[in-house]
Amino acid sequence: MIGLGAMGTVLARLLLEKGKQVTVWNRSEEKARPLIAAGATYSGDIQAAVDANDIILICLTDYAVTDQVMQGVTMKGKTVVQLSTGTPQDARVMAGDYTARGAAYLDGAILATPSQMGTEQTPIFLSGSAAAYDTAGDALRILGGTLIYQGEAPGAASAWDLAALSTMFGMMIGFLNGARIMESEGMQVADLGSMIHNIAPVLGQMIKDTGDDIQQQRFEDPQSSIDICAGTFALMLRLAAENKLDKGFAGFAQQMFGKAQAAGFGQHRISAIIKTLR
Ligand code: NAP
Q1: 152 alpha carbon to ligand 1 midpoint, in Å?
Q2: Which residues of the chain have a pLDDT value below 70?
Q3: Which residue's CA is the closest to the ligand 1 atom numbered 1?
Q4: In angstroms, rounded to a whole number, what is the distance separating the alpha carbons of residues 132 and 190?
Q5: What's phi and psi for 42, nearest 5 deg?
Q6: What domains appear along the chain, each with residue ranges and CATH number?
Q7: pTM confidence score
Q8: Inter-helix orientation angle 248-262/156-184, to 10°
Q9: Closest CA to 165 of 129, 116, 113
């Protein structure tokens, strides 16, 4: 296990708890101490750490840091799983490099926080060498019970990860804007959170329907047209002026919808916004 930050430490601990033999490497040795006490072997020498194992899991800040750490390391015959977050291009470049160095390369993206690791539901997107997936699958299933292998193209896991994060953080920013609306009217933000939790399946269905619409090129005959939806943001901007709220979120959303209206999609479904993004 290379990298003992917030995530790497939890990954190493989960493997130890399942009785796996784990060698750990980290730039700052002190983070290894609790893991050594739990049965891990510490190696301050990265090459020795790699040599001592068949499966090499990496969880560092990013791919640039990984390049620095793994520079010059011999990895012939090893199965390397990169669990640091990056772009599809990062993954493609690393897959090419590590494959040329004789390793079987699997790219991974963890869609969970450290405290959510190790459950049946914990999702880890994976892509790259099928042989590496076969070799590392059992160990990875200890870290996250829901392995989503997306095939041999190394960039697929990080594309999935960033697309899912885009959806999640987009919603989160919308929620924070909604939280300010609640606060400014003297209402409880936690109640909004609970309400959204309760209707989450409905929101999920809306996302799914829009995804299906885009895939099947269904842009017309809306139940709720872009013009109708865009009206929401004019109201939100007026509310922001009235209650002295930040206008950033409403302004951004209005701009996205406005572009679609300007392109003539006002009477189309929300799915049509993708045409202006394209
Ligand atoms: P973190 O706590 O900041 O840990 C960063 C790790 O990278 C540490 O091991 C750190 O070593 C090492 N590092 C940084 N710069 C280095 C350098 N120049 N040379 C050598 N080592 C260096 O980050 P984290 O939360 O564990 O995240 C690690 C990866 O997992 C990231 O790609 C992140 O996006 C991904 N991830 C994290 C979460 C999460 O919720 N935390 C969720 C999903 C995915 P030192 O200990 O010596 O500083």
Answers
A1: 26
A2: none
A3: 5
A4: 44
A5: -100, 135
A6: 6-151 (3.40.50.720), 160-277 (1.10.1040.10)
A7: 0.90
A8: 120
A9: 113
